[in-house]
Every structure is written in structure tokens, then in C-alpha cells.
Amino acid sequence: MRKFPALSLMAFALAACGGDGTGPNAITVTVSSPITTVIVGASAQFTATARDANGSIVTNVPTEWTSSAPTIATVSETGLVSGVAAGQATITAKMGGSNGSLAFTVQPNPSGSVLVTMPGFSFAPFTTTINRGGTVVYEFPSEPHNVIFNAANGAPQDIQITANRRVPRTFNVSGNFPYDCTIHPGMSGVVIVR
Q1: Angle CA(155)–CA(76)–CA(89) in degrees, nearest 5?
Q2: Between 112 and which of 12, 14, 31, 134 could a Cys-Cys bridge form, CB atoms 3.0 to 4.6 Å apart?
């Protein structure tokens, strides 16, 4: 029986594991989004798709999202990208040792108004950044919600339970203004006023 040096066996085992972007078990990652340009304060949902060497989609691969410029655009654990300041950032998804990226552009918001929607039981974007004197418009769906601000100097008036309408709130004081939907625990957001 032929014997192989231990080092050769170790190299063979590592090559068979894949995950380093090469070899038969390697995957490629594609990042996509319906929009890649937003105004400050708006957001876009990014998705990442992993494919094996045959081009078949690989499922149940954990995804780690990062932004090359968090002061320009942030990205959540679920791939929701939010514009923080005008500029460009690269959003990267790491899956199984491979990376995929997509460029993202944030443009100034000349109107000073930002829309916050409520998909499911969340506020989108979670973090809204505006200039002092800017307005956040809360778009309430058919599911009733409220917007209750933490007690803070300059916080606007709360929005009581409502549905199917848009309600604006103007922020005239700089600072951070967290808020919650108190009828749906865990549904939170924050407005950052510069």
C-alpha cells in the first residue's frame, strides 16, 4: 500500500472543501437591487444569490452584508440599504467564502422631505437622516400603526393609531429622535437630524 506524506493529504482535504472561490465546490455571488440610486434618507432592498459551479442556485447560505462607506450608505443584516449622505458606496454580500458587490449612489435631497413606509411590522428605512427643518412623511398602510417618539427636546408630536394615509412631521431641532409603534412591539425607527 502506497503511503502519502501527511502534508499532501492535508492539501487534498482543503481543496475538497471549497468555499475559497475556486474548486468544484466554489460558489459565485450576485448582488442585485431594483434601484441603485436613492436620495438621502431613502432606502433600497438588496438581494444576494449564490450559485454553484454548474450555475444552480445554492440555498441556505448565510449572508454577511457590508458597506464600503457607512457614512454614505448603511446596510442591514437583511440587505436593506439606506442613504445617509450624498456620495457613492459599494455594497458587498459575503456568502460561503465568496463575495459579490454592487455600486450604490446617494443623491442630495433638495426637498428636505423623506418618506418612511411600513412594510409588514417594520419602519423602512429604520434610520432616516435629514437636515434640520426637514420633514419625514410617514406612510401608513391598511394595517393600523402609531408613531410614538421618545421624550426628547425637539421631538415632534406623536402620531396616534392610524391607517391608509400619509402623516408628515417636521424636525426643527438637531439630534437623534427614536420612535416606536407601541401596538407592535419591536417595530422601531430613528430620525437623525443634522
Answers
A1: 100
A2: 134
* Per-residue pLDDT reduced to its tens digit, 27-38: 999 999 988 988
Q: What is the spatial order of strands in the sheet that 28-32 belongs to?
A: 28-32, 47-51, 57-58
Find out whether 93 and 32 touch, Cβ atoms under 8 Å. no
Nearest to 61 by CA among 94, 98, 103, 96: 96
Residue 164 identity: N
Q: What is the pLDDT of residues 114-152, one digit of tens each?
A: 889 998 899 988 888 888 888 899 999 999 999 999 988
* Polymer length in residues for the chain: 194
Number of neighbouring beta carbons within 10 Å of residue 129 = 21
* Alpha-carbon span 78 to 55, nearest angstrom: 24
Nearest alpha carbon to residue 43 among 103, 126, 119, 111: 126
